[in-house]
Write a structure and sequence with these properties.
This protein is of the alpha/beta class. The chain has one domain: Response regulator (Rossmann fold). 45% of the residues lie in helices and 9% in strands. It has eight helices and four strands. It has a four-stranded parallel sheet, sandwiched between helices. The longest helix has 23 residues. The protein is globular, with a radius of gyration of 16 Å. 44% of the residues are buried. The N terminus is likely disordered.
Protein backbone atom coordinates (compact mmCIF):
# COMPACT_ATOMS: atom_id res chain seq x y z
CA UNK A 1 0.00 0.00 0.00
CA UNK A 2 1.30 3.48 -0.90
CA UNK A 3 1.63 6.32 1.59
CA UNK A 4 -1.13 8.17 -0.22
CA UNK A 5 -3.44 5.19 0.06
CA UNK A 6 -2.64 4.92 3.76
CA UNK A 7 -3.57 8.57 4.24
CA UNK A 8 -6.88 8.00 2.47
CA UNK A 9 -7.63 5.01 4.68
CA UNK A 10 -6.91 7.17 7.72
CA UNK A 11 -9.83 9.38 6.71
CA UNK A 12 -12.17 6.37 6.97
CA UNK A 13 -10.64 5.31 10.26
CA UNK A 14 -11.39 8.74 11.70
CA UNK A 15 -15.12 7.92 11.47
CA UNK A 16 -15.37 4.47 13.08
CA UNK A 17 -19.03 4.80 14.08
CA UNK A 18 -20.29 5.80 10.65
CA UNK A 19 -21.22 3.45 7.84
CA UNK A 20 -20.06 4.34 4.32
CA UNK A 21 -23.59 5.44 3.40
CA UNK A 22 -23.59 7.94 6.26
CA UNK A 23 -20.52 9.73 4.91
CA UNK A 24 -20.25 12.15 2.00
CA UNK A 25 -16.71 12.54 0.68
CA UNK A 26 -15.61 15.67 -1.17
CA UNK A 27 -12.30 15.40 -3.02
CA UNK A 28 -10.52 18.58 -4.14
CA UNK A 29 -8.02 18.08 -6.97
CA UNK A 30 -5.24 20.27 -8.33
CA UNK A 31 -1.81 19.51 -9.80
CA UNK A 32 0.75 19.21 -7.01
CA UNK A 33 -1.63 19.08 -4.03
CA UNK A 34 0.44 21.69 -2.23
CA UNK A 35 -1.31 24.96 -3.19
CA UNK A 36 -4.84 25.19 -4.59
CA UNK A 37 -6.38 21.93 -3.39
CA UNK A 38 -5.04 22.22 0.19
CA UNK A 39 -6.42 25.77 0.37
CA UNK A 40 -9.79 24.59 -0.93
CA UNK A 41 -9.85 21.54 1.36
CA UNK A 42 -9.11 23.47 4.53
CA UNK A 43 -11.38 26.41 3.71
CA UNK A 44 -14.24 23.97 3.04
CA UNK A 45 -13.74 22.29 6.42
CA UNK A 46 -13.54 25.64 8.19
CA UNK A 47 -16.68 27.07 6.57
CA UNK A 48 -18.83 23.99 7.16
CA UNK A 49 -17.78 23.79 10.80
CA UNK A 50 -18.36 27.51 11.36
CA UNK A 51 -21.89 27.32 9.97
CA UNK A 52 -23.04 23.98 11.40
CA UNK A 53 -20.78 23.52 14.42
CA UNK A 54 -19.50 20.17 13.09
CA UNK A 55 -18.83 18.37 9.80
CA UNK A 56 -21.75 15.96 10.39
CA UNK A 57 -20.47 13.08 8.22
CA UNK A 58 -18.78 15.26 5.61
CA UNK A 59 -15.22 14.16 4.82
CA UNK A 60 -13.13 16.68 2.88
CA UNK A 61 -9.88 15.57 1.27
CA UNK A 62 -7.54 16.56 -1.55
CA UNK A 63 -5.03 15.08 -3.98
CA UNK A 64 -2.97 16.10 -7.00
CA UNK A 65 -2.76 14.75 -10.52
CA UNK A 66 1.02 15.11 -10.16
CA UNK A 67 0.88 15.12 -6.40
CA UNK A 68 3.96 15.86 -4.32
CA UNK A 69 3.55 12.76 -2.19
CA UNK A 70 4.37 13.39 1.47
CA UNK A 71 5.26 17.05 0.87
CA UNK A 72 4.06 19.78 3.21
CA UNK A 73 1.70 22.45 2.03
CA UNK A 74 3.46 25.25 0.16
CA UNK A 75 4.45 27.93 2.69
CA UNK A 76 2.48 30.74 1.04
CA UNK A 77 -0.60 28.51 0.86
CA UNK A 78 -0.27 27.82 4.58
CA UNK A 79 0.09 31.55 5.28
CA UNK A 80 -3.06 32.34 3.30
CA UNK A 81 -5.00 29.69 5.21
CA UNK A 82 -3.73 31.04 8.52
CA UNK A 83 -4.93 34.52 7.53
CA UNK A 84 -8.39 33.05 6.91
CA UNK A 85 -8.28 31.35 10.32
CA UNK A 86 -8.09 27.83 8.88
CA UNK A 87 -6.13 24.90 10.30
CA UNK A 88 -2.96 23.92 8.42
CA UNK A 89 -1.79 21.13 10.73
CA UNK A 90 -1.22 17.56 9.60
CA UNK A 91 -1.28 18.15 5.88
CA UNK A 92 0.82 16.04 3.49
CA UNK A 93 0.56 15.97 -0.29
CA UNK A 94 -1.04 13.01 -2.05
CA UNK A 95 -1.04 11.77 -5.62
CA UNK A 96 -4.50 11.16 -7.05
CA UNK A 97 -5.21 7.44 -7.00
CA UNK A 98 -8.04 5.28 -8.27
CA UNK A 99 -9.30 4.63 -4.75
CA UNK A 100 -9.67 8.37 -4.09
CA UNK A 101 -11.93 8.74 -7.11
CA UNK A 102 -13.87 5.56 -6.35
CA UNK A 103 -14.67 6.68 -2.80
CA UNK A 104 -15.41 10.33 -3.60
CA UNK A 105 -19.06 11.37 -3.79
CA UNK A 106 -18.12 14.74 -5.26
CA UNK A 107 -14.87 15.75 -6.97
CA UNK A 108 -14.12 19.46 -7.34
CA UNK A 109 -11.10 20.38 -9.46
CA UNK A 110 -9.10 23.56 -9.96
CA UNK A 111 -9.21 23.43 -13.77
CA UNK A 112 -10.96 21.74 -16.68
CA UNK A 113 -7.81 19.73 -17.42
CA UNK A 114 -7.91 18.32 -13.89
CA UNK A 115 -11.58 17.46 -14.37
CA UNK A 116 -10.77 15.67 -17.62
CA UNK A 117 -7.99 13.71 -15.94
CA UNK A 118 -10.28 12.58 -13.13
CA UNK A 119 -13.00 11.53 -15.59
CA UNK A 120 -10.44 9.67 -17.75
CA UNK A 121 -9.69 7.43 -14.77
CA UNK A 122 -13.16 5.92 -15.16
CA UNK A 123 -15.12 4.73 -12.12
CA UNK A 124 -18.25 6.53 -13.43
CA UNK A 125 -16.71 9.78 -12.23
CA UNK A 126 -18.22 12.00 -14.93
CA UNK A 127 -21.49 12.83 -13.17
CA UNK A 128 -19.80 13.70 -9.88
CA UNK A 129 -16.78 15.65 -11.12
CA UNK A 130 -16.85 19.41 -11.71
CA UNK A 131 -14.43 22.27 -11.57
CA UNK A 132 -14.99 24.23 -8.36
CA UNK A 133 -16.22 27.28 -10.25
CA UNK A 134 -18.48 25.18 -12.48
CA UNK A 135 -20.09 23.67 -9.40
CA UNK A 136 -20.47 27.15 -7.90
CA UNK A 137 -22.22 28.35 -11.04
CA UNK A 138 -24.61 25.40 -11.01
CA UNK A 139 -25.55 25.47 -7.32
CA UNK A 140 -26.45 29.16 -7.56
CA UNK A 141 -29.55 28.25 -9.62
CA UNK A 142 -30.70 25.26 -7.55
CA UNK A 143 -33.80 25.81 -5.43
CA UNK A 144 -32.48 25.31 -1.90
CA UNK A 145 -36.01 24.64 -0.63
CA UNK A 146 -35.95 21.31 -2.48
CA UNK A 147 -32.97 20.03 -0.48
CA UNK A 148 -33.00 18.19 2.90
CA UNK A 149 -32.33 20.18 6.06
CA UNK A 150 -28.64 19.89 6.89
CA UNK A 151 -29.27 20.56 10.59
CA UNK A 152 -31.34 17.38 11.01
CA UNK A 153 -29.60 14.11 12.05
CA UNK A 154 -27.85 12.83 8.94
CA UNK A 155 -29.16 15.86 7.08
CA UNK A 156 -25.83 17.20 5.85
CA UNK A 157 -25.00 13.96 4.03
CA UNK A 158 -28.50 13.72 2.56
CA UNK A 159 -28.38 17.35 1.47
CA UNK A 160 -24.92 16.96 -0.09
CA UNK A 161 -26.09 13.95 -2.11
CA UNK A 162 -29.19 15.78 -3.33
CA UNK A 163 -27.15 18.88 -4.19
CA UNK A 164 -24.63 16.86 -6.19
CA UNK A 165 -27.39 15.12 -8.15
CA UNK A 166 -29.14 18.42 -8.87
CA UNK A 167 -25.93 20.00 -10.13
CA UNK A 168 -25.23 17.03 -12.39
CA UNK A 169 -28.72 17.34 -13.87
CA UNK A 170 -28.07 21.00 -14.73
CA UNK A 171 -24.75 20.48 -16.47
CA UNK A 172 -25.01 21.41 -20.14
CA UNK A 173 -27.96 23.73 -19.54
CA UNK A 174 -25.93 26.54 -17.98
CA UNK A 175 -22.76 27.21 -19.95
CA UNK A 176 -19.79 29.18 -18.65
CA UNK A 177 -19.12 32.54 -20.36
CA UNK A 178 -15.57 31.28 -21.12
CA UNK A 179 -13.30 28.34 -20.35
CA UNK A 180 -11.25 30.54 -18.01
CA UNK A 181 -14.36 31.38 -15.98
CA UNK A 182 -14.42 27.82 -14.64
CA UNK A 183 -10.76 27.70 -13.60
CA UNK A 184 -8.49 28.68 -10.72
CA UNK A 185 -4.95 29.33 -11.95
CA UNK A 186 -1.88 27.81 -10.28
CA UNK A 187 -0.01 30.17 -7.91
CA UNK A 188 2.92 27.76 -7.40
CA UNK A 189 6.16 29.74 -7.24
CA UNK A 190 4.37 33.09 -7.17
CA UNK A 191 4.80 35.74 -4.45
CA UNK A 192 2.45 35.94 -1.50
CA UNK A 193 0.19 38.68 -2.99
CA UNK A 194 -0.74 36.34 -5.85
CA UNK A 195 -1.41 33.52 -3.38
CA UNK A 196 -3.69 35.87 -1.45
CA UNK A 197 -5.61 36.69 -4.63
CA UNK A 198 -6.01 32.98 -5.40
CA UNK A 199 -7.10 32.38 -1.82
CA UNK A 200 -9.74 35.09 -2.14
CA UNK A 201 -10.85 33.61 -5.47
CA UNK A 202 -11.25 30.15 -3.93
CA UNK A 203 -12.97 31.59 -0.86
CA UNK A 204 -15.42 33.46 -3.05
CA UNK A 205 -16.17 30.40 -5.17
CA UNK A 206 -16.67 28.25 -2.09
CA UNK A 207 -19.12 30.57 -0.35
CA UNK A 208 -22.19 29.68 -2.48
CA UNK A 209 -21.20 26.00 -2.33
CA UNK A 210 -21.01 26.00 1.46
CA UNK A 211 -24.30 27.90 1.65
CA UNK A 212 -25.89 25.28 -0.59
CA UNK A 213 -24.37 22.42 1.41
CA UNK A 214 -25.36 23.74 4.82
CA UNK A 215 -28.43 25.85 4.06
CA UNK A 216 -26.82 28.64 6.10
CA UNK A 217 -25.25 31.80 4.72
CA UNK A 218 -21.95 33.21 5.97
CA UNK A 219 -23.88 35.84 7.93
CA UNK A 220 -25.85 33.10 9.70
CA UNK A 221 -29.05 33.65 7.76
CA UNK A 222 -30.99 31.04 5.76
Amino acid sequence: MTAAASDADAGIAALPTQEAGQVFRILHVSTGNVCRSPITERLTRLAVTERLGSAGGLVVESAGTWGHVGAPMEAHAAQVLTEFGADTDGFTGRELLDEHVIRADLVLTATRDHRAQVISMGHSAGLRTFTLKEFTRLVRVIDMATLPDATEPGGLVSRARALSRAAAALRGWLAAPSAEADEVQDPYGAPIPYFRSVGEEIHGALDPVITALTGIRADGGR
